[in-house]
Structure to design on (310 residues):
C-alpha cells in the first residue's frame, strides 16, 4: 500500500449530530479542551454522539500546549502557562451537564511544573467523584518521568481505569516519542498501578511506524507480564508534513488478527483494534461490557443499566 495515499478503509464521516453539537457548546462555554479536538481524532463525531445518549469525550487537562514533542502527535508544543485552579470544578460541571456516566481524562505533559501536574489531575478525579460517586472515570496519564510518588497521587484519587500509552514497539521508541519518554519507563508506570491498586490498567499501540510482527507480539507479551488489563491498536495517521511519515497503512485484517491474539491467546480483558481506533475509542461502552462479561460488578448503576439496554 502506498504511503502517500490513504486507503478507503481510513475514510471517516464528518462529525455531526445533536449530541456532538451540544457537547461542543458545553466545552466552549466552560473554556475546556478535549484531546478529541486538539489531536484531530477521526472518531470524534462517533464517540461524542454515542448510540444511546451521550457518548465518550476525553477532556484534556492543564492547557493545550505540551512540554514534550513526540513525532506523531498533533498537540502543540509549549507549556509554562499557570494552571487554571477552576479547571477541576469546570470539568466536573461539564461532565454533569452533558450527563456522562463514563468520562475519560487525559492531559498534556507538564514537565515544567513541580509535581508535573499530578495534584491537579488527582483533584479533577476527586471533584468528578464528589459530585457523583457513580461516574466511572478513566484517566490517560503521562509517565510523570517515572516518579512513583506522583503516580501514587493518581492511584490515591481512585479512578476506575488508569491508562498510560506505550505507543510503539521498543525499537522505535526513540524515533516516535520524545526523548524523555521510554519503553521501560512506561512499563514501570503500568506495573506500579497494578502492584499498588485494584484499578484496571490500559495502554495503546500505534501500528504503521515500521514495526515488525514479532516486535508487536513481544510488546503484548511484555504488557501481559506487567499484568496490563486492556490494550488498543490503531493506525498512525500523519497529522502534517512536519510529523513522522507513515511507514505502512496496515490492513484491517491485521488489526483483527492482533485482537484475537490479545484476547484469545494472551488473555487481555479486552482489545479494541482497528485502523481508526484510538486509546479512548468507545472507552465506556467497551469497558462496561468487558467487566460484565467477567461477571464482576461495575460500581455505577446507570452505567450498568445503559450497558444492559444496548
Amino acid at each position: 500500500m502506498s504511503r502517500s495515499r490513504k486507503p478507503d478503509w481510513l475514510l471517516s464521516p464528518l462529525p455531526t449530530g445533536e449530541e456532538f453539537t451540544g457537547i461542543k457548546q458545553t466545552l466552549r462555554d466552560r473554556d475546556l479542551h478535549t484531546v478529541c479536538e486538539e489531536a484531530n481524532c477521526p472518531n470524534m463525531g462517533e464517540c461524542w454522539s454515542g448510540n444511546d445518549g451521550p457518548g465518550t469525550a476525553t477532556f484534556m487537562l492543564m492547557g493545550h500546549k505540551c512540554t514534550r514533542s513526540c513525532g506523531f502527535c498533533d498537540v502543540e508544543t509549549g507549556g509554562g502557562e499557570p494552571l487554571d485552579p477552576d479547571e477541576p470544578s469546570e470539568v466536573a460541571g461539564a461532565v454533569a451537564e452533558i450527563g456522562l456516566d463514563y468520562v475519560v481524562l487525559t492531559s498534556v505533559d507538564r514537565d515544567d511544573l513541580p509535581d508535573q501536574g499530578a495534584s491537579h489531575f488527582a483533584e479533577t478525579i476527586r471533584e468528578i467523584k464528589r459530585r457523583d460517586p457513580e461516574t466511572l472515570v478513566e484517566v490517560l496519564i503521562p509517565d510523570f518521568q517515572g516518579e512513583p510518588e506522583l503516580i501514587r497521587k493518581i492511584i490515591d484519587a481512585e479512578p476506575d481505569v488508569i491508562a498510560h500509552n506505550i505507543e510503539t514497539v521498543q525499537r522505535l521508541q526513540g524515533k516516535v516519542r520524545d526523548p524523555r519518554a521510554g519503553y521501560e519507563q512506561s512499563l514501570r508506570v503500568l506495573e506500579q498501578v497494578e502492584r499498588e491498586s485494584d484499578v484496571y490498567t490500559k495502554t495503546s499501540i500505534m501500528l504503521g511506524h515500521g514495526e515488525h510482527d514479532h516486535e508487536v507480539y513481544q510488546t503484548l507479551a511484555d504488557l501481559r507480564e506487567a499484568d496490563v488489563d486492556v490494550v488498543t491498536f490503531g493506525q498512525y495517521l500523519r497529522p502534517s508534513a512536519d510529523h513522522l511519515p507513515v511507514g505502512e497503512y496496515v490492513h484491517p485484517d491485521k488489526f483483527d488478527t492482533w485482537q484475537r491474539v490479545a484476547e484469545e491467546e494472551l488473555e487481555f480483558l479486552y482489545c479494541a483494534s482497528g485502523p481508526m481506533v484510538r486509546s479512548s475509542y468507545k472507552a465506556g461502552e467497551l469497558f462496561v461490557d468487558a467487566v460484565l462479561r467477567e461477571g464482576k460488578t461495575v460500581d455505577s448503576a446507570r452505567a450498568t443499566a445503559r450497558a444492559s439496554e444496548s
Summary: The mean pLDDT is 85. The chain has one domain: 10-309. The chain is about 40% helix and 15% strand.
